[in-house]
Amino acid sequence: MAFELERKFHLTELPAHAQNLYSTGDFSLLCQGYLHEGKPTTRVRIDKTLKQAWLTIKGKRTDKGKSEYEYTIPYAEGVELLALCGSRLVEKARITENIQVAGRNVALLAFDVFRLTTDPATGKPLLLAELEKLPFASDEDFNSIKLPWMTNAVEVTAKKGWSNRSIAKNK
Predict the structure, then answer these.
(1) 140 Cβ neighbours under 8 A, 6+ residues apart
(2) Which pLDDT score is estimated for 139?
């Protein structure tokens, strides 16, 4: 079984290095939609920049994370499946980087700029950061990650309304 362990943070601004990448267009443009309202969550995502697509099925969140199954699908089929999602869509610019502990990659960090969703706190596009544990990393290394921008962010992991599915539903 595939398994996902992640932490999610609400940001009021991007860290300077991520803002520089965003300003220069060094990001992936993702569009994702949800094929139904219930559990498990079934998501289709396309990367408009790389012309790639995935179908993902996510189980219910537990204290340890959640099951996740992701499959690459033809880009054209991803576009067709997005059309079936109706208004349950989000579009985001994603800036990614690897996070290391003791010289080893332990997590993937993604800064997401939700270009069509306004953050009520700032009046600007909603900003989230997701820190996802890599499969071979230890929980201890993953949980020890402390990045400077985290002191100004609010952790929203598993809080109602902060999942991409909720954002798509409530935008």
Answers:
(1) none
(2) 86
